[in-house]
Every structure is written in structure tokens, then in C-alpha cells.
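quick one, 534 residues, struct below
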Amino acid sequence: MANSDNGCTTGFVASEHAHEADSARHLDEAILRTMRQPLLVLSEDLRVERANRAFYRTFWVDEEETDGHLLYELGNGQWDIPQLRVLLEETQSGNGTVDDYRVEHDFDQIGRRVMLLNANRIVRAGQPDMILVAIDDITAQEQALALLEAEKEYIEKIVDSSRDALLILDLELRVKSANETFYNMFGVDPETTVGRPVYELGNGQWDIPQLRHLLEHVLPDNDAFDNFEIEHNFSGIGDRIMVLNARRVDHMQLILLAIEDQTSARQADQALRETALLRRVLDNLFAFVGLLSPDGTVIDVNRAPLEAAGIELADVQGRRCEDCFWWSHSPEVQANLRQAIELAASGETVRYDVEVQVAGGRLITIDFMLAPMRGEDDVIIGLIASAVDITERQRLTEERFQAFLDVSPDALILIDAEGKIGSVSVEAERLFGYSREELIGQRVEWLMTERHRAAHTEHRRSYFANPRRRLMGSDFEVYGLTRNGRKIPLEVGLSPMAMPHGLMTLAAVRDITQRKQAEQALRLAKEEAVSANA
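---
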């Protein structure tokens, strides 16, 4: 009878162990199936015990040619990678763990792959050790980054190394960029050049019949044209004799137009004529351009803004600048203008944007500048003032910036030094569950758990004191709070950005919930494996 009892007990214990082993095995299988990263389970002699579906799918293999085979024999020996051998030797002989080990290799079927490998040796009591290898394929990211950097470097080198004026056009003949020589040579700036059709530059001054013929008829049938000479008169800089060379770069869909200025020195009468032309240009500019005395008294103003305001030059000449114009009547604007006059009179060039209210209550943004004008012996004899309505340009800039934010796969949030949200991407709206209108103007701490808000405020102040590109959360975990109250772990990259209203920070936010879950699953698997074999 006693023997019978012992037999029952032994059978029960064996059944329990078998049940626990089955449970552990089912958990392992579930982990393997849910992992999005390719994952290998290797025996001590580096044979594949198991692999997940992501591994088979990524590397175009199946179970029959993988499971039970030596790792280095997979794919007809394609996995016999020297870097991989080093990784596994470190895992077997070192502390048993290797993180983010970079491996590059050419596979016959799928081509070159760049991978980050993480390996972990699991010690099993009474059984051989096994090694878990997780593979993160970062090929696409590396290729995209390399292509972007190469194209950027290519264009920058061409632009920077050219001593001639250089325009880079797209195939629709819009200006992509220009070098400093072009701006200096033709008296224009990036704001009135980049993004505009070449024929519209300088109020249509580049609508030159000879240039049209070259770009629209000669270049499409040839890869280039060389040493084509044209002569043209530009308002403000006079006659120019130019030698043009162009190249079509089809793979980048760009046109490179080099302009060599071969104009001889102008005579004194030409200089006088250019001065008259410049005056006519200024008089027809709607932007305010004026000459002030060092104390801010109006000496001269171009005609167009006066006509738009319905006033005569005599109405403003001899009066203080801040008392003359419709856009300077607010006390705050007047105070800033007086301060700017004092700084310019002391030798500084002052430039700032100011928002003012015009007739009908409409708000516009003005780009205002004051610069000292020096005479003999470097003495300041006057001030040059300009005011340009940049409302539309600012709106277009903001729209382009918003479009840039919205195409990013990450949630992007633009934050000022006070922590206020200035703009968000579509992905940020989706991640946190708030609309753009609800987020803009709120402090970014509003999107964090209450426990992290105070600490983040201090971290933000520290960051703006020393702004730089960095990953947030290296010294503490970052958690976000969605509209429905869900707490999510985040990875946040910070980049300082110079914006029209001052320095801001662009935060690239990524939900790492799945990564955390995978890490937790791996930890639990390791703990259960150790516990089961203890």
C-alpha cells in the first residue's frame, strides 16, 4: 500500500513538472511569434533550436533549412560572417550579453544588410546553455541617411566651391539655391530668390529672351551648354556681360547654371546712371525705405509706401520716425523703435519683426531694420531704415514648416523656452489624442504624468541654457499621458531650432511601448528559464 502511495506521488510530481515545462514552452513560442524583430534561439554548439516568423520573412528562408542547422551553415554558408563569430564568441566567453553589435553583410538573395545584433546567453541548470540573438535590420534607415547626406554634400560642395555666381534650378526652372556670389553680384537675397521661377527674379529682370532660348530649347536636347555670352541690363546694377555654362543633372532632376560676370569697369557717368536707376527702383518698392538722421528724424523716404498711406514726403520730412507712420502708433512699438534708433546711432545694425495693427483691425508682421550710414572717418552721419510686410511670407514659411512636420513618421512638437507648444505634427495629434488647436499654446508638461512634470520643467530650463542635439531620457525615464489617461513610455530626441520669434526646440517623440513589452517579455522568459532549471 505504501509503495502504491509513493508511486502516485511520484507520478503527480512528474505530471506537475511536465505541465510547467509545457507552460514555459508555450510562453516561449508566444514570445517568438509576437516579436517583430528577427529572433534566433541557438544551442550551446550554435545550432538553431528555434527561429521566429520575422527571421524567416526577413531573410527569405524557411524552417526546414533553418531549424536544427548550424548557424554558420544557413543559406549555403551566408551566415558565416566574421563579425557574427566575434559576437557569439563574446557571448559565450564574456558576461553572456552583447548589445547593439553592428554587422554589415552581403546576402545572395536579399543583398547588403546592416544589422544591430543583441545576444544573451541563458544558463539552464542541468541542461546546455542557449543563446538568444535578436536582429534589428536598419538597412533602409542607413541607406536613406547615406543618400540624403551624399546629395546634400554634393550640392553644398558645388555651391561653395564655385567662384562664379551659381544657380541651382529644378526642372521647372525654379531656384533651389544660389551661392553668396550670386546674391552679391546681382544685389538680391535668398528670401526673394529661392523657390521662385528664374524668370521672375528681380521683378522679372531675369526674363531674358536669350536665357529662355538656352533653358527651354538648347538644354532639353543636350546635357549642357558652354560659354554662351549674353548682355543684359539689370535695374540697380546696370549692364552686365555674362558668360553662361549649364549642366543638366538628370538623376537629381536639377540644372546647374554658372554665371561668369565679365563686365568691365563702369565709367563715372554709368555710376551716376545706376544711382538714378536705384532711386527709381526704391521709389517703386512698396517696402518702406528711408534715410534718417542719427536722432531718428526723417530725411527722405521712397515714394510707394507714402502713396499707399496717402501722405506726402513733406508730411513726414523733419519729423521723428516714430511719430510719422500708421504702423508706429502703438506705445510698445514706439518704445522699441526709439531703442532701435539709439542702438543704430551707436553703430549697431538692428533688425527685428514686429506685429502691428493696420486699418480694419488686420494684424500684419513687419520686418524692420535700422543700419548706421557712415561718412568720412567712419563717423555715423545717418541711419538707413527699412520696413517690409512679411505677413504672407511668414504664413507660407509656417505652412511649409507644418508640411515638413506632418510628413515625419515621428510625433514632432515645437516648444519654446517657456515650454509652450508652438506647433505639432499629425502624428503627435494621433499619439496623444488631442487636436492641434488643443495643443498649441499649452505647456509641454501638460502631456506628461504628474510625477514627471516638476522634474521636466527643471530639465527644460537646463536644456535651453545649453541647447544641443541629444536624446532625452538618458538619466530618467520619460512617460507621456494621452487624452484618455493612458501612460505611455517615450523616446524623445531634442534639436534646437532658430525660429523667427527666437530659439525653440523640436522634440521628436516616439512611443516605445512595444519595445518595452518586448524587453519585459525577454526578461520574464530568462527569469522563468532560470527558475525552471534552478
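Residues 2-34 form the longest helix (33 residues).
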